[in-house]
Design goal:
six-stranded parallel sheet, 9 strands, about 40% helix, binds adenosine monophosphate
């Protein structure tokens, strides 16, 4: 596996592959890799000649007081996993290489970026969209892989590619879960053992909400009410930041269900902020 830290060198590698007619799959990550990340990598390996994984804890997507400093980092173990998975190139730039002195442009996500996650993390999606636009320009991917675990992110990146004419196919991949249903996340490590045991209740509540919606006995608005009430009374849930049934394209709250919905929630449990969703 080739390890590249300099954007210009990565770009040359991408260009060389493209000239040889090779397709490139890009899997952007912040490291601390788990099976969720690895599922994206496996798909990219199946669909492309070469797979580039990026590891970059992007300062631009963390707000003041968020966990930028303590975000889990384990370069050695990540590299071992990527080698074992047959990844061709690891792109792992320093922050100064991505945001050199004088850096002054950024991507604005507009309305979509201000909803759900964006309402609690102002500027987060601008930071995500900016770094992903840079990664698209640096790695020149044919396809780029994102997890549905971060549904809003995958929606915004798809929009970014369309609106800005990036010649890349954005692929959204299913959420990988622990055996007890908890969505895998690098941030699950922030949970104490008691909190970890309580955390699968989030997915449990989402699942019951899904059942209610599908049965047709309750309106989407009623299901939202059920979800908020139930999540807030779960042990160790300190705060429900948002929860409800949303339109999967506009992310507006739905009153009535007509076959398509995003059931999503973000809660604080101890030191962790956990989010999860079910897409119907
Ligand atoms: P992160 O390192 O958290 O920025 O995640 C990198 C990519 O992996 C993003 O596209 C995430 O949506 C995706 N991802 C994270 N956790 C999971 C999971 N449990 N299942 C599937 N994809 C995931």
């Amino acid at each position: 596996m080739e390890i590249i830290r300099i954007p210009r060198i990565m770009q040359d590698t991408g260009r060389t592959l493209a000239l040889r007619g090779r397709s490139i799959g890009l899997v952007p990550t912040m490291g601390a890799l788990h099976d969720g990340h690895m599922s994206l990598i496996r798909l990219s390996r199946m669909e492309n000649h070469a797979t580039v994984v990026s590891i970059f804890v992007n300062p631009a997507q963390f707000g003041p007081g968020e966990d930028l400093e303590k975000y889990p980092r384990d370069e050695a173990e990540d590299m071992q996993k990527l080698r074992a998975a047959g990844v061709d190139t690891l792109f792992m730039p320093e922050a100064g290489a991505m945001y050199p002195e004088g850096f002054s442009f950024s991507v604005k996500t507009g309305e979509l970026g201000g909803k759900l996650e964006g309402a609690f993390r102002p500027g987060h999606f601008d930071g995500v969209a900016t770094v992903v636009a840079k990664l698209f320009n640096i790695t020149l991917p044919t396809r780029a892989y994102f997890g549905l675990k971060d549904y809003q992110q995958s929606l915004i990146i798809r929009r970014l590619a369309v609106d800005m004419n990036f010649p890349v196919e954005v692929v959204a991949c299913p959420t990988v879960r622990e055996e007890d249903g908890l969505a895998m996340s690098s941030r699950n490590g922030y949970l104490t053992p008691e909190e970890r045991r309580a955390a699968p209740a989030i997915y449990g509540c989402l699942g019951r909400a899904e059942g209610m919606l599908r049965s047709g006995d309750s309106s989407a608005g009623e299901v939202t009410g059920f979800l908020r009430e139930n999540l807030s009374t779960e042990p160790f849930v300190a705060e429900v930041q948002y929860a409800g049934v949303y339109d999967p394209l506009s992310l507006d709250e739905l009153d009535e269900f007509h076959g398509k919905a995003l059931i999503a929630a973000a809660v604080r449990i101890g030191a962790a902020r956990l989010m999860d969703n079910i897409l119907i």
